[in-house]
Design brief:
This protein is mainly beta. It has helices at 34-44, 213-216, 220-226, 231-234, 404-440, and strands at 12-16, 51-56, 62-77, 82-88, 94-95, 111-116, 120-129, 132-143, 157-162, 167-169, 173-176, 180-184, 187-198, 209-211, 248-254, 257-273, 279-285, 292-297, 301-308, 311-320, 325-336, 345-350, 355-359, 363-366, 370-375, 378-389, 400-402.
C-alpha cells in the first residue's frame, strides 16, 4: 500500500518521563469483564468471520481442527516503488489434501496447509514433546503474479516462515481470542479468535482448553515491569512536547472511485524502556509533505496505509451493513525506536476499535484531539479529523456528523452564555422595578 518513504522534515521528539507506577493504563476492552466480554470482543474483532479447517488421515479420522481469523499485510515491489497489500483469509480458503497430513509416529509431524487465491498457501507445522504440542512454524507462500491481491506487481513466488508461541497441553484445545501479530520479512500476519487442536483423540475438539497468556493475564506483565524499579531511579522532568502535527490530506481510490477521504493530523506516541533502566517517550509528528499513502477498497472493508520516515500506520475501516455506518476497526503500528531503547522496533495492532464512526454518505468530523489507543505503550493521536469512507460523491465530504468531544466542548460556553444572559435579565428587571418605585413617591401638581 505504501510508496517510498520520505526522509526530510524530521519531526520526531524523544522525551523522558517517569516510569509508570502501580496504576497502569486500563486494559483493552477485549480483555475486561471475564470470558463473556472476551468472547463478545473477539467476535467484534472485525466482524471477520473465522474459518474452520480439518485435516483427516486415510481412514477419515480427524487429527487437526483449526478455527481462526487471519489477516495479511504484504509489502511488495512494483516497477516504480514499494506497495503494500492488505487482505484477509477468504471464506473460500480450503485445506489442501495433498499438502496436509496427520503425520506418522516418530516419522513425520502433522501439517495443516490452507490454500486460497492464485497459488497462496498458509501452512502450520505441528510438533509434540512430552505432554505438549505446538505450532512449531508458520509458513506463508504467496504469488505476486496474482494481480487481484498485488496490483502492479513485478511478479514472482515468495515464501516466509517464523516460529510461533502457540502451544498447549496434549488432549486440550488451544484458545486465544486476543490479537497476535507475527512479523516476517515484508509480511505481517495477524491472528485472532483462534481455537485449534492437533493430535486429536476422538475426532473432535477436547472439552479441556489451554488459554493463551494474553487472554488470561493481559495486565500482569505491565504491572510487574513497571513496579520493579523505584520512581526515584527513573524520574526525569519531561521536556516540552512538540507542537500539534500539520493536517494532511489522504485518500484511497478503488475501482468505483474514491473510497477513503481523510484530512487529519497524525502523531505517534510510544513509551519504551531504555538501556539505562529509565523510561523514554518517543513522539513522532507525521509530515504530510513527506508521508507516502495508499490503500485498498472492498465492499465492506477499506485500508489506508501511511508511511513516514521508518514508521508505518495502517488504518482498517469497516462497514456495518446492519446500521449503515462506517467506523475505524483497527490500527497497526510499525516503527523504529531510538538507539537508547532496549528494543529496536515497536510493533503493535489493535483490531477491536470502534472509532471515527458516521453514517455512510456522511462524514465524521472532530476538531478535538482524539487518542487511538493501540496498546498500553503506544497510541496514535489524531488532530482535526475529517473522514469519510465508502460512499463518497465527487471527492467531496458529505454532511458532517460532529464527534462527542466537540459537542461536549460546546456545552460549557452554552451554559456560561445562558448564565450571563440570565444575570443580565435579572439586573434589568431589578432596575425597572426600582425605577417604578422611585416614581411612585411623587405627586402630580
Amino acid at each position: 500500500m505504501t510508496g517510498e518513504v520520505g526522509v526530510r522534515g524530521v519531526s520526531r521528539a524523544r522525551l523522558q518521563r517517569p516510569q509508570r507506577g502501580a496504576s497502569p493504563a486500563p486494559p483493552p476492552m477485549a480483555r475486561i469483564g471475564g470470558r463473556g466480554l472476551l468472547q463478545a470482543a473477539a467476535m467484534l474483532v472485525f466482524l471477520q468471520i473465522s474459518s474452520a479447517f480439518e485435516v483427516k488421515d486415510e481412514s477419515g479420522k480427524v487429527c487437526i481442527i483449526a478455527n481462526m481469523s487471519v489477516s495479511f499485510s504484504v509489502e511488495y515491489p512494483t516497477k516504480s516503488h514499494l506497495q503494500v497489500a492488505n487482505f484477509t483469509l477468504p471464506q473460500n480458503a480450503e485445506v489442501l489434501a495433498n499438502k496436509s497430513t496427520c503425520g506418522k509416529e516418530n516419522a513425520s509431524a502433522p501439517v495443516l496447509a490452507i490454500g486460497f487465491g492464485v497459488g497462496h498457501l498458509l501452512e502450520m507445522n505441528f510438533t509434540k514433546a512430552s505432554k505438549q504440542y505446538r505450532v512449531e512454524e508458520l509458513t506463508f507462500y504467496y504469488n505476486l503474479s496474482d494481480t487481484t491481491l498485488f496490483p502492479n506487481s513485478t511478479g514472482g513466488a515468495k515464501a516466509v516462515s517464523h516460529k510461533t508461541d502457540i502451544q498447549a497441553k496434549m488432549d486440550t484445545r488451544y484458545r486465544c481470542f486476543s490479537t497476535s501479530q507475527i512479523n516476517m520479512s515484508n509480511v505481517i500476519i495477524t491472528l485472532s479468535n483462534v481455537t485449534l487442536e492437533a493430535y486429536l483423540v476422538n475426532n473432535t475438539l477436547s472439552k479441556n482448553e489451554t488459554v493463551c497468556d494474553a487472554d488470561v493475564t493481559p495486565s500482569t506483565t505491565a504491572v510487574t515491569t513497571t513496579t520493579s524499579q523505584t520512581p526515584s531511579t527513573t524520574s526525569q522532568a519531561p521536556t516540552t512536547p512538540p507542537q500539534n502535527p500539520v493536517t494532511g490530506k489522504y485518500n484511497v481510490t478503488g475501482t468505483n472511485g474514491t473510497c477513503v477521504l481523510a484530512h487529519m493530523g497524525l502523531q505517534l506516541n510510544v513509551t519504551y524502556h531504555r538501556k539505562d533502566g529509565k523510561t523514554g517517550l518517543d513522539v513522532l509528528n507525521f509530515d504530510p509533505v513527506n508521508t507516502s499513502f495508499s490503500g485498498s477498497c472492498e465492499n465492506s472493508s477499506a485500508f489506508l496505509n501511511l508511511t513516514f520516515e521508518r514508521t508505518r500506520l495502517v488504518f482498517h475501516f469497516l462497514l456495518n451493513t446492519s446500521t449503515d455506518k462506517f467506523f475505524l476497526q483497527g490500527v497497526s503500528v510499525n516503527t523504529t525506536l531510538p538507539s537508547e531503547a532496549t528494543a529496536s522496533t515497536f510493533e503493535a495492532v489493535n483490531n477491536s476499535m470502534n472509532e471515527l464512526r458516521a453514517t455512510v454518505g456522511n462524514s465524521y468530523k472532530c476538531n478535538a484531539e482524539e487518542k487511538l489507543r493501540v496498546t498500553d505503550d503506544g497510541s496514535v493521536n489524531v488532530f482535526n479529523a475529517w473522514v469519510q469512507v465508502f460512499k463518497i460523491d465527487g471527492n467531496r465530504f458529505g454532511a458532517v456528523e460532529e464527534c462527542q468531544l466537540d459537542e461536549n466542548n460546546m456545552v460549557i460556553p452554552i451554559i456560561v452564555g445562558a448564565a450571563l444572559a440570565g444575570l443580565v435579565l435579572i439586573v434589568l428587571i431589578a432596575y425597572l422595578i426600582g425605577r417604578k418605585r422611585s416614581h411612585a413617591g411623587y405627586q402630580t401638581i
